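### Sample
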Amino acid sequence: MGRKKCHRSIHNYDSSQKKKIPQIKRKEISQQCENLLKLCSDPIYTTRLWESYLEISSILEKINRLEEMRMATTTPRAEAIMQFIEWLKSYGAMIEGVSIGEFAGFDLGIKAEKDYHANELVLEIPRKVIFSIETAAPELSSIANDPIIQHMPQVALAIALLVEKHRENSKWKPYLSVLPRTYNTVLYMSARDMIELKGSPTLEVALKHCRNIARQYSYFNQMFQSNGSSNHVSQILKDVFTYEEYCWAVSTVMTRQNIIPSEHAGEMIHALIPMWDMCNHEEGVITTDFNINSDMCECYVKREFKQGEQIFINYGSRTNSDFFVHSGFVYPDNKNDGFKLRLGISKSDPLFQDRMKLLEKLEFPASNLSFLLNTTSEPISDQMLAFLRVFSMRKFELDHWLESSKVLDLKHRDCALDTVVETNVRKFLLARLKLLMANYPTTLEEDLKILKTMMPPIGKMIVELRASEKKILSQAIDYVEQWVKA
């Protein structure tokens, strides 16, 4: 269970002080959204990722300028936290042994108010205050047949957040008041930030994610404007829905979402778990579960914590690329880290059909072949090795293995193959890894020096990601070089 990071200053928007965007601007915004939807849906995006991203960003800048019509009031952080704690207690949450505190490098986190032993119960959060489409925003049922709402539960949860945020006298106001107003996710990065990811496989993932969110925003903007009185969600969000608001809602869900049992037996739903989602990440065992009998989320400490220390939880096994794009942080010395390596067979290869048939026998997918270089002493997985063997075989070897009943032996590291094939595998892989390292505009040593300087959080996070990827590549290169010599 888990996902989150980055608590920022708390800004409570007072719906009574919002101004409506003038109709003339709304018309211009709608036109820009139409352009945005076309651009985000254009298949050429896949071959012109960076150029399309810049075009999308340009349109979004125009939309942001047109949508800047809100006035904000600010709730002092201490007051918001106090109201939040009282709200949780009023619904029966068990939070007596902890508090919300500030920690260097994390902003807000959960602070131990007593000593805790490993596996000791620390939090119990009842379903009544767990934010989901079952407990919040009943208006969502009015657009339940929308294909995006139906098939993308994270998006449905983001829209539910906005409904509750802009509803007068929402039950969830104390929780919404302690949520960050901005995040370090890629949605908050500029083109100048993004270009610093040049050479990283994470850049493609980040650009596609930004494209998807821009497309969703333009889709919902058109829905809320054209169906302003036909459904309850549009009635609430028509005058207040903006790209900035949607980025906030999506980032809140991305960084904090969890999956819990539904009230309906056998189903699982996405949800936000107040207070528990204030815990920051640390590697270790996962010690959170949902107790169906008590209808509560129960969190046990994963190790010993002394009074005054920050209590951490484990968000699960994710690479730093995943954390970077979806949670807005990079975890130092991540034991679950990996470098995504995309490989494929060229259709111009005279043996393309034979190679693809053999890969099919080995149960590889027909397309989107990618492998993960890991941080262990064996960075090359058996799956990757099997693919490289097929990639390097000659005609008679392909014929042999296509007829063999022991084709799965190719996935075994000690499978006996012709020396020429094994040599070609190692030489190709070494050349490919060195090329990937050379694609970065900076070296690992340069990045490590940059990290010792003062820099903004997002800039630091980008360099941390680059450094973590280069460490994996460097380790893999050393491994293959020794392999070649052997």
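The two ends are 43 Å apart (CA to CA). This sample (protein-histidine N-methyltransferase) is used throughout the tutorial notebook.
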